[in-house]
Design a protein that fits this description.
Layout (H helix, E strand, L loop, with lengths): L2 E9 L2 E6 L2 E8 L3 H10 L4 E6 H6 L5 H9 L4 E5 L5 H9 L4 E4 L1 H5 L1 H11 L4 E3 L4 E3 L2 E6 L4 E6 H10 L4 E5 L12 H10 L4 E5 L5 H10 L3 E4 L1 H4 L5 H14 L1
Parallel strand pairs: 1-4, 1-13, 4-5, 5-6, 6-7, 11-12, 12-13
Antiparallel strand pairs: 1-2, 2-3, 8-9, 9-10
Helix pairs in contact: 9-11
């Protein structure tokens, strides 16, 4: 079954959403992060996706205490990322209580190192994040908080990670992220063709229960839910119900 996963993006200790990854186009929400996490737990969430946006751009954890506070409640399993540049960062997040560490820039720039971490910590604890945008006829892979395109493409690295023993893959269509314009279902279908053994988490653009159903029917292992939940487009409980029905019909 496809798992809906609520997301909390942090900047300056606040819950925010960016529009297409643009730090200058930020919406700040009047939720205290730990209280919001508790609400998602009350609504049935088992996992929470947390991003330190400050860390994603600077390369240094700037919201680690908040992540640790959410994890310490014991009510949610946390996958967290933003600012992982070396193995010390992986250890610090795990020690803070994260169950999975999401690795973005390093996963693109130095996949061999991330493969080593997968071998050392386990394929269930390291999640490569290959966030992408379509440019010049191919899926580019920006890094450093989505501010700079790298030479490797999505089609280069997805099968590479499958062969290297990764289990999970998080992929955001940056042009859909925070837009409430609908997910790029074709992108996730493409990923399933490139690496059918990977459990892909789809992210970017989900706006409705129909979008959740479409991603579930496509076979995504997880659906990251950000702005849609924050703005009340639907409830987490309804997302779980829709995902379950779609899974049963496959």
């Amino acid at each position: 079954m496809t798992l809906p996963i609520p997301a909390i993006d942090l900047r300056d200790g606040k819950v925010v959403r960016l529009y297409k990854g643009d730090y200058a186009r930020q919406t700040t929400f009047a939720f205290e992060p730990e209280a919001l996490a508790a609400r998602y737990a009350d609504e049935g969430a088992g996992w929470l996706h947390v991003v330190d946006l400050d860390g994603a751009r600077s390369g240094h954890f700037e919201n680690l205490a908040t992540i640790a506070g959410i994890a310490s409640s014991g009510r949610l399993r946390v996958q967290a990322g933003g600012g992982i540049r070396d193995e010390d960062g992986v250890r610090r997040l795990l020690e803070a209580g994260a169950d999975r560490v999401v690795v973005g820039s390093v996963a693109i720039r130095d996949p061999e190192t991330v493969a080593m971490w997968i071998g050392r910590y386990g394929a269930d604890r390291i999640v490569p994040a290959l966030d992408t945008r379509f440019r010049d006829g191919e899926w580019k892979l920006p890094s450093a908080g989505w501010t700079a395109d790298e030479a490797r493409t999505l089609d280069d690295l997805v099968p590479w990670y499958e062969a290297a023993g990764a289990r999970h893959l998080l992929c955001t269509d940056i042009d859909r992220d925070g837009t409430m314009s609908g997910p790029n279902v074709a992108l996730y279908r493409h990923l399933g063709t490139l690496a059918p053994a990977l459990e892909v988490q789809a992210s970017g653009g989900v706006r409705s229960l129909e979008d959740v159903a479409a991603l579930a029917l496509q076979g995504s292992a997880g659906v990251i839910l950000g702005r849609a939940l924050l703005e009340g487009a639907f409830t987490l409980a309804d997302a779980f119900a829709v995902a379950e029905r779609a899974g049963a019909s496959c």
